[in-house]
Amino acid sequence: xxxxxxxxxxxxxxxxxxxxxxxxxxxxxxxxxxxxxxxxxxxxxxxxxxxxxxxxxxxxxxxxxxxxxxxxxxxxxxxxxxxxxxxxxxxxxxxxxxxxxxxxxxxxxxxxxxxxxxxxxxxxxxxxxxxxxxxxxxxxxxxxxxxxxxxxxxxxxxxxxxxxxxxxxxxxxxxxxxxxxxxxxxxxxx
Length: 190
Ligand code: SF4
Ligand code: SF4
What we know:
Layout: H1 14-23, H2 35-39, H3 43-46, H4 50-58, H5 70-73, H6 79-83, H7 90-103, H8 113-127, H9 132-143, H10 153-158, H11 172-186
Helix pairs in contact: 1-7, 8-9, 8-11
The protein binds iron/sulfur cluster (2 copies).
One iron/sulfur cluster (SF4) binds near residues 32, 33 and 50.
């Protein structure tokens, strides 16, 4: 299917520049070969696949782009990056769009992905590594779905997919410094 994308009525390079700066990419180098979109495992469900998002940024998309579903469904698998002949790191583009969307308080299109992200990152901040059990507990408390999928828990424990005890041995001080630096760069102090 061909999607026709027209230039925005109010051309504004602001979002493109902000994304390029945060993601350290040159979006003008994209020549729309679509190799990224063809390899993306969630492109079909996302509405706007990677190449389309880049084209929209090139054409001056504004904050309406922050509503795109791929921001919250991207798996960070970096297949798009690996397939791009111009070495455009689209996974970093998504991270940049996500952080801008959170900072601007843009409503998520659907689901609880921001809550999941926060729950996950809070455990990394506390323990220096991901602590799945706590992240899931925080997420479930936030969504009010404590009982959902609990039947899978024993099998996951048995197969070693989830640990009961928190991770140890991480360089917590360094990880905390990374979080502090990221908060400072965002200007939130959080
Ligand atoms: S990193 Fe995200 S956008 Fe890129 S291929 Fe994977 S799921 Fe798709
Ligand atoms: S693979 Fe690279 S050059 Fe091709 S459309 Fe995607 S981002 Fe653009």
